[in-house]
Amino acid sequence: MQHQVLFLGSDESIYGSAREIHEAYGIKSTILAAANPMTATRNSEIVDIQLVPGINDDPIFITEITKIGQALKAAGKSTILVGSGDKYAALIAKHKTALSEYFVVPYVDYDRMIELNHKETFEPLAAAYGLDMPATKRISAADVTREVVSPWGYPVILKSDNSVEWMDLYFPGHKKIYFINSTAELNEVIKLAYQNGYTSTFTMQDMIPGDDSYERNLTAYIDQNHKVRVISMGHALIEDPGPQGRGNHMAIMPDYNEDIYRQYVGFLESLNITGFANFDLKYDERDHKFKVFEMNVRLGRSNFWASLNGVNWMRYLISDYDGTLGNDDVVFANADQSKWQVWMAISPRLFKKYVRKNPATDLALKLLDEGKYGYTYKYAADWNYQRFMNYWRANRNFAKYYAKYFKP
């Protein structure tokens, strides 16, 4: 292992990546956090957490990370920089040129990131390549002065096109995703958002029928030479039901679809990018197509579901820059169903109580009964009393949360 990884953030995504490094190489990872660590990394013995107040925003970010990079370079340490979530990814991409003097930066540049992450610029690229998408309509601040009506009827989905700006806002009624049921509700939300300082656009989207189990997650690693080396598809089973967490997967089972794999490998390689990419898809039974909602050029919060099923993302990343990845063909993950495990963020008891019954969840329940499941957080090599209590409290809170917000 010639390259080490420096992580920014302390959430579940980062813990999953640090766990992958510990499993593959047996070493601790260093994490920089702006505040006290989140539950996922708290009381962990496989990470070294260094608090750097304000590092999650400029100008402190570029000042402090430059100092750290200079020290690492002077010590002869080759370091790959990996951040959690949209905000750290955007900061890294924004300063990619400067940071590349001290770090390996496996991200696209900032303008390209905005083009791929924002729905209004991603959609033409996806359409040109022939990717299927739900019908959409763009909404801007100019629409506050007129009545907006859905052309498809209701319900519809309304989501910010700028997740970094949106998540920095808070006001009564603020949600990650809105499920809109009427014209009156649609216009109320639009006015509320722009009155409270939002400046970017929204996407209004035709709501594809079907529960959480119609959704898929597709994640890939693209190497330095812009070739996809591995791609993995996950079958979402149940989501976070709350207003701020809606859209976050709480249980994922592997899936395998060679046609989708080939199509998205071709799309990714046509973009001439490097690093991680993930897509949210949903199966539309009206025309039997998988439709893409969005693309992110980073790992997702729940990316460890793929590692649980044999894809160690950090091993691919480190091997790429160590020069040991080789020239094998792209790996289409999850071909052997006998090896499938269900990734869980909630307890099996809670999952069984709230999951909607269908053939996919029937298979998941069978895997649970066979003990074929796991968590990002519960790692035998990093299990202690404090982490057990954190886990217990989290599950108690999830139980209250589902009882309050879940709608059958």
From TrEMBL:
Q: Which residues form the ATP-grasp domain?
A: 123-322
Which stretch is the leader sequence? none
PROSITE patterns in UniProt: ATP_GRASP (PS50975)
State the UniProt keywords alphabetically.
Answer: ATP-binding, Ligase, Nucleotide-binding
Q: What is its EC number?
A: 6.3.1.12
Q: Where are the transmembrane segments?
A: none
**Keyword set includes Metal-binding:** no
Q: Which InterPro entries does the UniProt entry name for this protein?
A: ATP-grasp
- Gene Ontology terms, MF aspect: D-aspartate ligase activity
Q: What is this protein called?
A: D-aspartate ligase
Organism whose genome encodes this protein = Periweissella ghanensis
**Taxonomically, what lineage is the organism?**
Bacteria, Bacillati, Bacillota, Bacilli, Lactobacillales
